[in-house]
Amino acid sequence: PLHSKPQAVITFPGELLSAPSDVELAENYLLRFGYIQEAEVRRSSKHVSLAKALRRMQKQLGLEETGELDASTLEAMRAPRCGVPDVGG
Amino acid sequence: FLTFEGELKWDHMDLTYRVMNYSPDLDRAVIDDAFRRAFKVWSDVTPLTFTQIYSGEADIMIMFGSQEHGDGYPFDGKDGLLAHAFPPGSGIQGDAHFDDDEFWTLGTGLEVKTRYGNANGASCHFPFIFEGRSYSRCITEGRTDGMLWCATTASYDADKTYGFCPSELLYTNGGNSDGSPCVFPFIFDGASYDTCTTDGRSDGYRWCATTANFDQDKKYGFCPNRDTAVIGGNSQGDPCVFPFTFLGQSYSACTSQGRQDGKLWCATTSNYDTDKKWGFCPDRGYSIFLVAAHEFGHSLGLDHSSVREALMYPMYSYVQDFQLHEDDVQGIQYLYGRGSGPEPTPPAPLPTEEPQSIPTEAGSASTTEEEEEETPEPTAEPSPVDPSRDACMEKNFDAITEINGELHFFKNGKYWTHSSFWKSGTQGAFSIADTWPGLPAVIDAAFQDVLTKRVFFFAGRQFWVFSGKNAVGPRRIEKLGIGKEAGRITGALQRGRGKVLLFSGEHYWRLDVKVQTVDKGYPRDTDDVFTGVPLDARNVFLYQDKYHFCRDSFYWRMTPRYQVDRVGYIRYDLLQCP
């Protein structure tokens, strides 16, 4: 049966009030797993360095190399995984 | 494969490991066994040996922890990071850490190993029938002592086999009480507690006193997780309380109400509206065996691989019948050389001891838990042939495709092969189930990926991917990006460069086999490109570089330039029946 009244959506205690944006998610991911260094981000324009790092990550993880934050790349970034960085020590 | 910079590796082959603590999600014996099998993955293909020690410093120290757990590389709560490990060396090097905010299982959901009863430590079977009712969790029904139990077969009414479920009233883990159960109420820091608590700890593990007064006796143990223990939320490890009240409504089961992500949750008190205590309900969880095998690869010196199917690929994916990928074998043998292969192991001894009843004195239990030994599989026998099924008598095959150079004709649980290369004619009938275990008897279509040689099977809206006898699936074809308009797949044409056309009705999709998703811009109309072939073909397949569309007893053959160059009889041309 259809719900008699619209479903309430609440924020559960302990949960983040707002999920990070896609770009924030990407930056954290690329930094954490070694695809980009802090200095690199500071030194060149964010867009350029992100695109380069994204391409490197897409190549490493066997994704289509677009350099863009496309759906499959975002899905990969949200997938459960090992904490050892992919690049570097 | 990749190794760490500087090719970090162990300078000895006989490695030791020690499990420092245990997740409350799984019975200790299940975790020990999973780690033993995870190490065996690597010892099977190298000269390495792994021995578990129970005190002192081992080469590989294994621990569960959450958030910041002492090494400066914090975990991140449920999902996300699952575990990490350090390359070979002394100290923390070589160690493996597992995020205990995850729900650890064997990959297929809750694993409740029982103790005592008469089931020899078998795991619960959910659902099970007791007095005519079906239960999918541990229950206290039928008992007056409030002990949680379950059946270890589908029906307690029929089989009468049962065991007791993890509960702090039955035993505790670790601490300093040799597994004694909790005593409630107990006094801690002057206050009285009648449930397990995380008070006094910063690591979030639930504990209790095993005497009435912790302040005085200092005796304690960690509480095992009950089957309904929640994950995450703000009361990790506490059991759901049913019924609970949420927004004025009563719930007697987990619900996704109030959430947009569809995840199931429950309250850990009887009233969420007033207490706001909650957590996620158990899901499939993560296989501690698979994650451990990956992390132990790091502990031995392997870095992440970019081969998606490899164990050392950084992302988790559940595989039922695990086999080490060639890329991983090459990597570990690059570091340590070959081994002599797996040691033969004796078949598991038959249980001879009588099952134990529950002890009267806490802690004096002696269990008869049997260590399951893996019996080696006999080398594969050629599939038995059923001569009574003659392919030439069959009509309307379920599916036809070329696998390893031979045409395969599938029909209702059986299949025949016909090789144009070997003049042996049509072979079979063979059993589909023997060759591809787990496949349904009736399939709709199949194709072999040219690059990986894996075979994709389709039945209804489900598909399987086989590497040899190992299957991933069934999965829904939605995962490939094929919408509901495709009731069934009728055939497939391999197009090279990892692309395969999948046909359904009068449309076709182009599948990128590597990423297992269909390309944008599909489906397209079949007769836009393939003019002159039947739009309601029952089978579509590639054979000898030409496209074949079958309907009834005929086939239409089309060249790669989309010209129909032949219409013939399946029986006489393809099967070459007399």
Can you describe this structure?
- The complex is a heterodimer of chains A (89) and B (578).
- The longest helix of chain A has 15 residues, at 46-60.
- Chain A starts with 21 loop residues before the first helix and ends in a 7-residue tail after the last strand.
- Helices cover 45% and strands 2% of the residues of chain A.
- Chain A has 89 residues and is an all-alpha fold.
- With 578 residues, chain B is of the alpha+beta class.
- Helix content of chain B is 11%, strand content 26%.
- Chain B has nine helices and 36 strands.
- In chain B, the strands form twelve sheets. Chain B has a five-stranded mixed beta sheet with strand order 2-1-3-5-4, covered by helices on one side. In chain B, strands 28, 29, 30, 31 and 32 form a five-stranded antiparallel beta sheet that branches.
- Mean pLDDT of chain B is 86; it is low at 343-382.
- The chains are: A mainly alpha (89), B alpha+beta (578).
- β1 of chain A pairs parallel with β4 (81-85) of chain B, so a sheet runs across the interface.
What key attributes describe this structure?
heterodimer, A: 89 residues, B: 578 residues, alpha+beta, five-stranded mixed β-sheet, 9 helices
Number of strands of chain B: 36
Can you summarize the main beta sheet of chain A? none
Radius of gyration of chain B: 28 Å
Q: In oligomeric terms, what are we looking at?
A: heterodimer
- Work out the helix count of chain B: 9
Task: Indicate the radius of gyration of chain A in whole angstroms.
Answer: 17 Å
Low-confidence stretches of chain B: 343-382
Q: Helix fraction of chain A? A: 40-55%
Instruction: Round the mean pLDDT of chain B to the nearest integer and report it.
Output: 86
User: Roughly how many Å apart are the termini of chain A?
Assistant: 56 Å
